[in-house]
Write a structure and sequence with these properties.
By secondary structure, the chain is mainly alpha-helical. It contains five helices and no strands. The protein is elongated and about 55 Å long.
Length: 146
């Protein structure tokens, strides 16, 4: 019985590692855009960073040694970041009216600073990263609950 539980926990380690890789890549990307390319973040970008950056520390703390409760701490942060990213994407796309935007000073949240391949903007990259992290955390939770 204990061996099965350990095997299930070990099966959940890989998705946790994948989620950490996505979070760490996102952190490096955000630092590159801000510090190297000198692109100032807007208010919504800051909220997404506040949700993303702690994941880079929380996830490895739960992987070494493996702690099933790490998902309990990481998933709310990832979901909060996902909601902020979704709001940001909808704001940039014009689905959410401009008068609702939280950016009253500094860089406008609607401003498109980078657009790769004609559709990949910074908010879209953030939404993809948070979606991957949430998916990987749910996969880890499913595997650990067996």
């Amino acid at each position: 019985m204990k061996a099965e539980r350990n095997a299930a926990s070990a099966a959940g380690w890989s998705p946790l590692f994948g989620a950490w890789l996505v979070a760490a890549s996102s952190l490096l990307g955000a630092l590159f855009l801000g510090e190297v390319m000198d692109l100032p973040p807007c208010v919504l970008c800051w909220w997404q960073r506040i949700a993303m950056f702690p994941l880079v520390l929380i996830l490895p703390a739960g992987m070494f040694p493996l702690d099933r409760n790490v998902i309990r701490y990481a998933l709310p942060l990832a979901l909060a970041g996902w909601m902020a990213a979704l709001f940001h994407v909808l704001l940039v796309a014009g689905v959410i009216p401009e008068r609702i935007q939280p950016c009253s000073r500094g860089v406008s949240c609607k401003e498109i600073q980078i657009e790769w391949f004609g559709f990949l903007t910074i908010p879209m990259l953030s939404l993809i990263a948070f979606s991957l992290i949430v998916g990987l955390l749910l996969l880890a939770k499913h595997r650990m609950s067996r």
